[in-house]
Amino acid sequence: MAKTTATPNRLLGWLPEESRLTLLYFCLIIVIIVGGWEGLKWLGQETNYSLNLGPVQIGLSKTRDLTMPHIRDIIGALGEPAQRNGPPLIQQLTEAALFTFREAFLGFTIGTTLGLLLAIIFAHSRLLQRGLLPYVVASQTIPILALAPMVIIWSDKLGARAMGVPIIAAYLAFFPVVIYALRGLSDVPDTALELMQSYAASRWTILWKLRMQNAVPYIFTALKITAPASVVGAVIGELPSGIQDGLGGQIINFSQYYVSGPPRLWATNLITALLGIGFFVAVAVAERFVVRWKYADTIFNRIFVDPVINLFVGIPPLFTSRSTDKKKK
Amino acid sequence: MTTVISIENLDKIFESRDGNTVHALKDINLEVEQGEFVSLIGPSGCGKSTLLRLIADLIEPTSGHLMINGLSPRQARLHRQYGFIFQNATLYEWRTVIKNVQLPLEVMNYSRRERDERARQMLELVELSDFANHYPWQLSGGMQQRVSIARALAFEPNLLLMDEPFGALDEMTRERLNNELLAIWRTISSMTVVFVTHNISEAVYLSSRVVVMSPRPGQIVDIVDIDLPRPRTPETMDSDHYFHLISQVRHLLREAH
Amino acid sequence: MKTIRRFVMLALVALLILGVLPGAVAQDDEPVEVRLQLKWVTQAQFAGYYAALQQGYYEEEGLDVTIIPGGPDISPQQVVAAGGAEFGIDWMGSHLAAREQILQGDGNGPVNIAQIFQRSGMREIAFADSGIETIEDLEGKNVGVWFLGNELPLFAALVANDLDPEDPNDVNIIAQAFDMVAFIEGELDAAAAMTYNELAQVLEFVGEDDEFPIYTIEDLNIIDLNEVGTAMLEDMIYANEEWLAEEGNEDIAVRFLRASFRGWIYCRDNPDDCVNYVLEEGSALGAGHQTWMMNEINKLVWPSPNGIGIHDPELVERTAEIALTYGVIEEEMDEGAWRGDLAQQALDSLVELYPDLDVTGEDWEPAEVEITPGGE
Q1: Domains of chain C
Q2: Within a domain: B88
Q3: d(CA A42, CA C111)
Q4: Which residues of chain B fall below pLDDT 70?
Q5: A240 has a chain C CB within 8 A of its CB
């Protein structure tokens, strides 16, 4: 591949050009966000500037430390204990994040399994699909905040208190899986299906060797939506269940005592976001290994390069077209 | 000589949702003997692909009689008596080349060892052994179609149904594949081939008989015996008789319009 | 043969007896599992219950108590009504509202069985330089309140001073968030604040470049709604009517109250221990803030003129009256909304068991707690 960039970067030379570009953009966006944030604060502090957007007037004095702490303070808050003689906030939040991740992962697993089962049923019975799919859609219009307390109380009554939060996470997680998996199971080319018919293949064989395989990339797209959503579900679920060990509990606490330490709430939000992104990246890495045919490349790239890009660059492009893959070869 | 396909008074009428009917095939009568290479040729809409699909039991006839090796098309399909090759290679993109060739063997519960052995044999036959572990998108269109031929032959059907298999390929590739196909057919002499095409020279070059069809409703106009000597080679295409046969088929097609 | 068979039978019977009897005996000794649903997340506001747990008071009463913290979106009344907990902590106003709703829905209502906080911790605060010193001064000002029933004490006080809370020309009522940002930013001239929480947060506020303190208690004017005479009762323990009616449950309730009372007495006498219990449960809480809260909570509980947990009928009536006036409840409070007998029983037996125990806290003096930056 021809090197067109003017700066031959030795440090990152082993990365494909495309990835180096992604890394560059990623850093650029961080600079823009940090610069924008601090710039807005500076404007608000140095002047009494007020933004006039038609009927909306935004006083930039809102950008004081109370409402918008300095980014260095947010990062700094992670290093300091939130409680006298306690562990640094980052440790406390990491423990909370692990706790929430366990709930989210359980919910993710339950939701994915349920979503797949529903999709398989719907793909095989037009009648059930017509009858039930509207309810699946309707289920997503019920605000999770309204549903969460009920789920918590029910699961408690059923003696499965610990399952309340994962169920809420699963509730958010199963929907994209149903929709995408159904699409993947049904979106099989006619000839691919006729090929199976010509072999007199059973329904089960067609499901397993054709429909499911065809659905795998679709399902991964759903899982990439589902992974962060299940983190959100777990955090929301923690609120009405009185669970204080997770990020939800930390968020309640730091928002209640917001005035006492604004950077702590922001730091908690940051960690929550990182958890969601981390989960997303983990799914994306898994995808590289499972959907091998799409990213077919050397084993070296699959093990070292792609995950490195994923982990440090974060989000790989959601929709890689086949044509760019071909070019890579 | 045993009859592989026997078709009597076959009719196929498609009914669309708005109630319109299309008479796709009308009063088709055809017998194909074992070891024959029969081409179905005609303009688009003449029902040649429909006829192939009826033989394959991918669709059902409206009326008439159709037997494959003395069985109904359904039974023949359930007994896995034919291999089908589509216009696009219809490879499963998530399978490597060799895994694609093994697909029918997996569905038909061949042992792992036999699957492996046969697939390698077939890839050798189509000269793609070096690409066994490639994924389909890494192959050219012509190579993909060769894989699909290897796949169709893997379980040794005695009837090969081909639906415009080389229609989407460039002329050079098509010619090469025609020769390869003939070579393969020669090694499995008992195999019967029904080949759908809209390319006259291809039909003449490959076939022992060419069935010329006309559209609306699809009917058989005439059947031309191709008595060119075998084995056929690129030199065959230079012979006067070859040109004569081509113009004969062309005239029939023109009249049928 | 016969003897062998008899021997086997005997052995089986012996096994059965041995196997079943210890179980039967143990059943009486096994602690009763009960759950307590808090109104909010773990904090010193609920220290007495954590102390009773940590000090083993519940265990002594044969109770295995699980304390379930609350949070936003959680209605303790709903949890107890649904059988998710046997006891709950709530404010009297929302208790009355929930009871009326549950009774109308044919359910069995919650009953206030012990009034832990004898006085209200709710204040309306303003900066000293605003000139707001009394309710009257709120005229024409931006006044923050928490809604969902928490606005009533202030509304009652405004009406008593001829100010209509519904009329923005009289006073501009603004729904206040659960933090004090709007007050510190000057968007509110006065804001609702609990002595044990939001008030301290204002004092704990750290300014730009770690400047501290920004505000001291002298910088604030504090309007005490207890003095105005429109305060409503706050933290109390309630249980379900139907549950109480089941045989043996009243006894469980008395045992629960007795242990809880001891917990509160312990926290009065050992506030630092109680702060630690709370901090152990809530890792994110600031120690300085919780120390302040513990002291302020003690002020709400102590002194308890008639003994801890005993209702002051006059204050109960006043709370109900305000709730009725402002439509929190539609009908007058019914007799079943509260009962004092269980608390009295618990208190009497406590005095009997520990004659030296001070259950009224007449001579108790609050501590002076230092404000720490950020409440750490």
Answers
A1: 31-119+232-375 (3.40.190.10), 122-228 (3.40.190.10)
A2: yes
A3: 55
A4: 1, 257
A5: yes
